[in-house]
Design a protein that fits this description.
Shape: globular
Number of helices: 11
Number of strands: 11
Strand order of the largest sheet: 3-4-1-2-6-5-7-8-9-10-11
Order of helices and strands: HEEEHEEHEHHEHEEHEHHHHE
Oligomer: single chain
Radius of gyration: 21 Å
Structural class: alpha/beta
Length: about 425
C-alpha cells in the first residue's frame, strides 16, 4: 500500500466484540490524526508539493495510489447561483470531529418534470448514495477546487463515484445544474414538442459563475468554505457535453489550470465553431478519457480531439466501456431494468436519441462500470494532483495499462512541464 499522510475520519462504532481490535487501531489512528490536526492549526504540517494546501502527501506515488478512497470523510451541501438560481451540489473534505450522520442520497425521480412525475406516482423512487454526509463541518486547512459539468440530459449528481472520491482526496468539488440541458429541461422540451437540442447552452457561464460563487463563499465568515479554498488552484472535469464545456472553460477562464474531458471534448471533433471558445484549444494541461465501445461520442472523435490539443496532454481508453461508464447511471434502478426500462414501464415514451444516451455502457456486453471506476478515479485524481502542483511528476499516470489490465487499453501522452499554479 502506498504510504500517505493520513487525515483521520470518523469511524462508525460497533458493539461487536469481533471488531474490538479494529476499534483499538482506530483510537491509535485518531490520536495520531489529532496530532496532525494540531500541527495544521498551528502551521506546522507538511503539505503536498509545499503548496500550503491540506492535500494528503503521498510519499511514493504509483499507478494505483489514488484508485481507492482517500483519507478524508466527505461532506455535502447545496448552494445556488445568483444568476439563474440553479443548484450547485458541493462535495468537500469533512472534519473528523463532526463526521457522523446518515449517508446522503439523491433520487433521479425528483429530477423529472412535474408532468412526468404524475406518471411515476405509483413507481418507487430511485435512491442512490451520493458519497457523503450532508451538512457536516469542513476539515481544517485550505483545499483546491474542482468544478464538475454533467452531460446532456444529465444532472449535477450524476457522477458521485468520482466527485465524492475527489473530495476524499482533498478537493472541493462544485457541480452546477445546467438548467438549459439537464434531464428536466430536455424532457420538458420533448413534452412540449420541441427538439431535444433546441436552444443554446450557457454551461460555460454556469461553470464560471460557480467558480465566482465559491470564491465568494471563501470570503463569507458564516460559510462552510470560509478561508478553506485555494482559488489559485482550480481544475475542471466534465462528462460528455460537460467535457466540451470544461475545455471551453479552460480557454476563457484564467483561473482554471487543468481540464479533464470524460467522453467529451470541444475542439477537433465535437461542436467547435468558427468563433468563441470552441474555435481554439486551451494552453493548459488536459486529459481526455473515452470508452472503446462508446456509441454516443466515438473513440475516433476523442482521438481527433486529443490530437488537436497542446501538450501537456493525455488520452486514456477504457476497454469494452460505453458512454455512461463515467457516471452512476448504469447503477440506477438495476433491479428494475435501468432508468429507460423504468420509464417505459411507467408509460413514458422515450424520445429517439435518449434511449441510447440512457443505456450506452450499461448492457450485458459492456465492461461493468464498477470495474472501470477505480481506473477513472486513479487517472483523474492523479492528473489534477500533478497539474495543480501537488505531485512533482506524472508517476500516478504512468503504467496504467499494466495496473488496470483488461480495463485501460490506451495511455498516450505528450508532456511538457506545466506552468505552476500561482
Amino acid at each position: 500500500m502506498t504510504p500517505i499522510q493520513r487525515v483521520p475520519t470518523n469511524i462508525d462504532k460497533s458493539r461487536s466484540p469481533i471488531l474490538v481490535p479494529f476499534a483499538i487501531l482506530a483510537v491509535m489512528s485518531l490520536l495520531a490524526g489529532c496530532a496532525a490536526l494540531f500541527a495544521l492549526r498551528h502551521g506546522g504540517i507538511a503539505t503536498a508539493g509545499g503548496t500550503g494546501d491540506a492535500v494528503p502527501i503521498v510519499s511514493d506515488v504509483g499507478s494505483s495510489s489514488f484508485a481507492a478512497k482517500g483519507p478524508f470523510g466527505v461532506g455535502e451541501t447545496t448552494l445556488h447561483l445568483a444568476s439563474n438560481g440553479a443548484a450547485v451540489h458541493v462535495w468537500y473534505p469533512a472534519s473528523p470531529s463532526s463526521y457522523h450522520g446518515t449517508p446522503a442520497t439523491y433520487d433521479v425521480k425528483n429530477l423529472l418534470p412535474e408532468s412526468i412525475k404524475k406518471l411515476f406516482k405509483s413507481v418507487a423512487g430511485v435512491p442512490y448514495p451520493s458519497g457523503g454526509i450532508t451538512g457536516v463541518a469542513m476539515a481544517d486547512g485550505r483545499f483546491p477546487m474542482v468544478v464538475f459539468s454533467h452531460g446532456f440530459a444529465g444532472f449535477s449528481t450524476q457522477s458521485t463515484f468520482l466527485t465524492a472520491h475527489l473530495a476524499s482526496w482533498g478537493f472541493v468539488v462544485a457541480a452546477p445544474e445546467h438548467i438549459d440541458r439537464d434531464l428536466t429541461s430536455v424532457l420538458n422540451r420533448y413534452l412540449s414538442g420541441q427538439g431535444l437540442n433546441e436552444g443554446q447552452s450557457y454551461d460555460v457561464t454556469d461553470l464560471s459563475n460557480t467558480i465566482s460563487l465559491m470564491a465568494t463563499e471563501n470570503q463569507i465568515s458564516s460559510s462552510t468554505f470560509y478561508r478553506h479554498l485555494d482559488m489559485n488552484r482550480v481544475g475542471a472535469v466534465g462528462h460528455s457535453a460537460g467535457g466540451s464545456a470544461v475545455e471551453k472553460l479552460a480557454v476563457v477562464d484564467p483561473s482554471v489550470k487543468v481540464f479533464v474531458g470524460l467522453a467529451g471534448a470541444s475542439y477537433g471533433a465535437f461542436g467547435q465553431t468558427a468563433t468563441g471558445a470552441g474555435s481554439t484549444v486551451p494552453s493548459k494541461p488536459g486529459l481526455l478519457m473515452y470508452g472503446t465501445e462508446d456509441k454516443v461520442v466515438t473513440p475516433g472523435g476523442m482521438t481527433s480531439a486529443y490530437n488537436a490539443l497542446k501538450p501537456p496532454k493525455r488520452l486514456i481508453g477504457l476497454q469494452g466501456s460505453g458512454h455512461l461508464v463515467f457516471s452512476d447511471i448504469c447503477r440506477l434502478a438495476v433491479s428494475r431494468g435501468g432508468l429507460v426500462a423504468l420509464a417505459e414501464a411507467a408509460g413514458l415514451p422515450i424520445p429517439a436519441g435518449l434511449d441510447t444516451l440512457g443505456t450506452d455502457g450499461c448492457t450485458a456486453g459492456d465492461l461493468p462500470v464498477g470495474d472501470a471506476w477505480p481506473a477513472i478515479n486513479q487517472s483523474v485524481t492523479a492528473e489534477l494532483r500533478w497539474a495543480l502542483g501537488f505531485d512533482p511528476t506524472q508517476a500516478g499516470l504512468d503504467g496504467l495499462v499494466s495496473a488496470f489490465p483488461g480495463v485501460i487499453s490506451q495511455n498516450t501522452t505528450a508532456v511538457t512541464v506545466p506552468v505552476p499554479a500561482s
